[in-house]
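Retro notes (design track)

What went well: tokenization of the new backbones is finally stable.
What didn't: we kept losing track of which sequence belonged to which structure.
Fix going forward: every design gets posted as structure first, then sequence, in one message. First example under the new rule, 286 residues:
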């Protein structure tokens, strides 16, 4: 089975009698439906609803949670959580130099691991597990990147920039990263309004081309007008965050969509529930 070991991740533990209540009131994830052995995506937002930090959250025992995030943002994440702590009875700590081992495919579990595997619930096709600690498996980062792209799963840094995206933009509303039935959390009003009004225009799409795609961050254009940008790429496939109304207009008009100077085809991930708008945006509205 394929495995990948990530060295650029960090773990933040939040524990104590008030841990669940504390996190439930500030994060997008609904912890009431977070089962033991699961890792769900989530975000801490600005009051305006933009993603400040993204992560995977799992239970780490009674009154304890584990938040896995990018190592380069972990210190800032700890500081931000601490700002919200106030008088809550919680302890917030970061573990350094964490090795994350990911396995995917049927019965995908590392043979020798320091921790019990947990299921990454973002993926709909095939089992994906994460272990925290050293394993003896051979790492295949390119295969993991290709699998993640094929699954339409975006992550900050490589696919979008923190502070520049709403949860709907990167499909957190469809991967279980936003609890629409929970109470208030930071940025909740904006996210709920986008959900109920159906106003999300930027979405993650899967890009494909007949030749290798250019580097991440390359602008997507239609007739010289920007419609989005590439994220992670592997060969001729990649992820993109793009305006689906403008993509619809291009498709209806038979116009080419370019990543740099490379023609691309953009598709909605097969598991996603959203669709291209029924009516395309006009040139004036674009």
């Amino acid at each position: 089975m394929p495995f990948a070991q990530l060295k650029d991740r960090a773990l933040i533990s939040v524990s104590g009698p008030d841990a669940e209540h504390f996190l439930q009131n500030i994060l997008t994830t609904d912890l009431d439906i977070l089962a033991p052995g699961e890792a769900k995506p989530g975000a801490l937002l600005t009051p305006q609803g933009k993603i400040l930090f993204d992560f995977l959250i799992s239970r780490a025992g009674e009154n304890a949670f584990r938040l896995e995030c990018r190592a380069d943002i972990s210190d800032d994440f700890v500081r931000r959580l601490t700002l919200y702590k106030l008088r809550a009875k919680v302890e917030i700590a970061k573990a350094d130099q964490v090795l994350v081992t990911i396995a995917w495919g049927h019965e995908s579990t590392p043979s020798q691991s320091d921790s019990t595997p947990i299921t990454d619930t973002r993926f709909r096709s095939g089992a994906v597990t994460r272990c925290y600690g050293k394993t003896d498996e051979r790492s295949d980062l390119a295969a993991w990147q290709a699998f993640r792209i094929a699954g339409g799963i975006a992550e900050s840094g490589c696919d979008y920039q923190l502070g520049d995206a709403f949860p709907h933009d990167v499909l957190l509303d469809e991967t279980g990263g936003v609890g629409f039935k929970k109470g208030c959390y930071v940025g909740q009003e904006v996210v709920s309004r986008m959900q109920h009004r159906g106003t999300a225009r930027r979405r993650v799409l899967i890009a494909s081309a007949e030749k290798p795609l250019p580097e991440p961050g390359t602008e997507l254009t239609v007739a010289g007008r920007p419609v989005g940008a590439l994220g992670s790429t592997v060969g001729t496939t990649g992820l993109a965050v793009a305006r689906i109304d403008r993509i619809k207009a291009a498709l209806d008009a038979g116009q080419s969509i370019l990543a740099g100077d490379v023609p691309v085809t953009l598709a909605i991930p097969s598991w996603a529930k959203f669709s291209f708008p029924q009516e395309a945006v006009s040139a004036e509205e674009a």
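Added context from the reviewer: The helical segments are 19-24, 74-85, 141-150, 188-197, 244-253.
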